[in-house]
């Protein structure tokens, strides 16, 4: 079973890669090694043909042969991309039944990918996917612990990809990272030495002003609880210098809130300096603050447009996302229970989902 420290390290790596795409390789490598796999791949298939974003161990000739020939025979990825967003698929389900195929014999097995775990992270237009591959063994790769770890990483990978896509169109060398990151709903703070705040986005400013566990003191980012403050300062120190060892590391932590609502989740990451950042001084850290209480839901109009839902179907989909049961939904929308069930089945069909949990994952992934 993965430890909390190991999981925090994996998550920190994922969010660091969201801001610096060159770090996807190390982040993906860390994940597949923690799972005991031999290959990790983050990719996208926008038009039915895949491309690799962060691959760790596949040699160049394997990638070339896939692009030239074997990609057309890839029944595994085809089935993953036809399935629901956020569902973990397994080698025992998708690979084992077709071990006599050319794709398995000539490409998967020679590249140590005769087993593994796969997940479709997003829908169109990007169609991101993530795969951890492993060689075929006596026991299948899909142990409960590995599936649980993969499932736990999905939401973080999805959020990191949304962050990356929001930042990607921005011009390189922008000296105001917080200004550009105002498009991100999570709080983002750029912190320098002595925990001094260099800049922050609008969401972070709202969080600090609320004074519900986090705040600003004399221009420094701080927590209101002593224990949380010590942990936060230690994480920032590690991201800046790690005690002078020159190995800068990220860390994740939580911060309880006096209001009693769910704690903030905080990821502290080293900020990768560029030559154009010399005017900002020494080393810096990026603090990402996630408020579990501030998870916006997609508008009914967006659901209608993306999945061709009717107004009633979209409203029922949002009720499911809020955790409202079908009986209460029928009362609130003045519809019979049988009508609600019929509409929900239409929602499943149109969103290519089969259970309410799958539907919730799809709806959460749509939040900008």
UniProtKB/TrEMBL annotation:
Per the record, the coiled-coil ranges are: none
InterPro entries assigned to the protein according to its UniProt record, in alphabetical order:
Sig_transdc_resp-reg_C-effctor (IPR016032), Tscrpt_reg_LuxR_C (IPR000792), WH-like_DNA-bd_sf (IPR036388)
Q: Which SUPFAM superfamilies match?
A: C-terminal effector domain of the bipartite response regulators (SSF46894)
The record's annotation in CDD domains points to: LuxR_C_like
Cite the HTH luxR-type domain residue spans from the record: 302-367
Q: Which SMART domains match?
A: HTH_LUXR
* Annotated keywords: DNA-binding, Transcription, Transcription regulation
Provide the protein name.
Helix-turn-helix transcriptional regulator
